[in-house]
Amino acid sequence: MLVASAVCPCPPLLVPEVAAGAAPELDAARAACTDALGVLAAARPDLLVVVGTAGQGEHGPYPQGTRGTFRGFGVDLDVRLGPAGPSVPERELPTSLAVAAWLLERTGWADAPIEGLGVPDTLEPEQCAATGRELAGRAGRVALLVMGDGSACRTLKAPGYLDERAAPFDAEVARALAAADAAALRALDPGLARELKAAGRAPWQILAGAAEHTGLTGSLLYEDAPYGVGYLVATWS
């Protein structure tokens, strides 16, 4: 069953080498992510599953030891999802899972085996819930690291330009995460999320499915919209 979850944003800019001169702007977000991973470690899980959205051809499971890279962002930096396994996986991590791998390496995660799952941002809520329930049953004590950004339409300079619906959308997600309100996450509208370029919708709804009947409590550690994109860090434990 699910014993803990951390929700983190997944912009490549979270990695200081990618952000370069702008790196200090996300120091508070990085610190919150570190604290969130500490909550996962304290839960003593038997398995950590990292969930994030992925592009076409990147969907599906990623075993421990899968490598990722930020070379596509002009940085000579590679990461790996936990210790190397007996075989070398053929596929590289999608960006969301590569950011997660960087966070786990940064904090020295060694508390449980790791698996990754890349999902399409079009995954329907019912499928998300079913996926979450399946992940929660993978081990006696399962932890989830849920990677996803909020809306990308908070300001005129945001990737999706300004949309007046973006701030209320992000505020409802923040409230649901703070309250560990799985029903509210399940109720998020996939169409609206897509219009607002909120890539975290499917991973959040997977968390909602995994958390059914667990009685976990939530804590919101960070909420801001640098660059016009909603970034949230939360824990359920």
TrEMBL record:
Superkingdom to which the source organism belongs = Bacteria
- According to UniProt, the name of this protein is Class III extradiol dioxygenase subunit B-like domain-containing protein
Organism field: Streptomyces bangladeshensis
What is the phylogenetic placement of the source species in the record? Bacteria, Bacillati, Actinomycetota, Actinomycetes, Kitasatosporales
